[in-house]
């Protein structure tokens, strides 16, 4: 009788084991199925993310191309406005498109003004500095020809001061000179000599002597609207 009970117990245990194994298999299948679904979702999400990044990259490239086109167009308009303004300036030196203050002359990228007050060299430097400008320097052929055309007589230049009096030199030689001032000098006295232009030559005199002078500074960009809108329908200029 006890053996039958033992056998029944064993059958019951085997049945329980099979049931547990079946349940584990079912759970395993569910976990596998869930993981497979989640992996599929993850792959879809990754694909979506990659597609989104591609679209963003394409949009950025498109925006950069548009920005470059806009910049190129802006530069072209600026060049046209500048050329037109130069023509208008030749006809009327006080034309409102001029990128220089009212009483200043315009040449290439710079503005110039002749000051007929008599000042020491140092006072001339200080006056120009107050106008956000500096004493005239002649560093290229174009500026040289522009200045020669003015036939200036007795104007201080932005040449470095000297401790010894120098003989005069032809103004044409100055564009290859290393003597042009690179910064304002604060300690110029009556023992030093400064350069000035007189017609086609450069001379030196005591820096405390009083002469006229000419200032220069960078011109502002030409305003497109003040140039392109300046010509009236009847051919006259505002």
Task: Describe this structure as you would to a colleague.
By secondary structure, the protein is α+β, with helices and mostly antiparallel strands. The protein has helices at residues 2-91, 121-130, 141-150, 224-228; strands at residues 105-107, 110-119, 134-135, 153-156, 169-170, 193-198, 201-206, 211-218. Strands 1, 2, 3, 4, 5, 6, 7 and 8 form an 8-stranded mixed beta sheet that branches. It is elongated and about 135 Å long. The protein starts with a helix and ends in a 10-residue tail after the last helix.
Summarize the structure.
With 238 residues, this protein is of the alpha+beta class. The protein folds into 2 domains: 1-98; 105-218, Mannose-Binding Protein A, subunit A (Mannose-Binding Protein A, Chain A, Roll), CATH 3.10.100.
């Amino acid at each position: 009788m006890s053996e039958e009970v033992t056998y029944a117990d064993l059958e019951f245990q085997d049945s329980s084991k099979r049931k547990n194994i079946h349940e584990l298999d079912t759970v395993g299948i569910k976990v596998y199925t869930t993981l497979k679904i989640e992996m599929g979702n993850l792959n879809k999400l990754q694909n979506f993310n990659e597609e989104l990044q591609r679209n963003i990259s394409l949009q950025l490239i498109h925006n950069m191309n548009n920005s470059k086109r806009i910049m190129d167009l802006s530069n072209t308009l600026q060049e046209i406005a500048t050329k037109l303004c130069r023509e208008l300036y030749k006809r009327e030196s006080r034309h409102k498109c001029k990128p220089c203050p009212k009483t200043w002359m315009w040449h290439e990228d710079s503005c110039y003004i002749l000051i007929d007050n008599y000042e020491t060299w140092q006072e001339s430097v200080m006056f120009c500095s107050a106008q956000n400008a500096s004493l005239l320097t002649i560093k290229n052929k174009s500026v040289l020809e522009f200045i020669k055309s003015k036939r200036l007589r007795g104007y201080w230049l932005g040449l470095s001061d000297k401790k010894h009096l120098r003989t005069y030199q032809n103004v044409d030689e100055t564009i290859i000179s290393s003597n042009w001032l690179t910064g304002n000098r604060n300690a110029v006295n009556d023992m030093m000599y400064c350069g000035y232009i007189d017609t086609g030559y450069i001379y030196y005199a005591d820096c405390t002597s009083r002469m006229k002078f000419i200032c220069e500074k960078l011109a502002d960009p030409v305003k497109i609207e003040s140039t392109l809108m300046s010509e009236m329908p009847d051919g006259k200029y505002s």
